[in-house]
Amino acid sequence: MAGKKVVYVEDHADMIDLVKLILEPQGFEVIGAIGGREGLETIQREVPDLVLLDLMMPDMDGWEVHRRMKA
Question: How many domains does the chain have?
């Protein structure tokens, strides 16, 4: 059985790497997206089981990403 797919939207690549380091050994597939705009594209393309959002990003904050995901 395949692991659950997680998209992590974050503007710092080192944080994405850290989350991958923690979750991948637990069987999760973690897909990182740098920034809100890339995050929305990745979410639409990958259709993840879980989305983790950084709230404070320069191009589009996590709240706006969340609003657009729901639209």
Answer: 1
Cβ(38)–Cβ(59) below 8 Å: no
Instruction: For 33-59, give one letter per residue: b (16+ CB within 10 A) or e.
Output: bbbbbebbebbeeeebeebbbbeebee
Q: Nearest to residue 40, comparing CAs of 70, 69, 10?
A: 69
Question: 31-59: per-residue pLDDT in tens?
Answer: 999 999 999 999 999 999 999 999 999 99
CATH number at residue 50: 3.40.50.2300
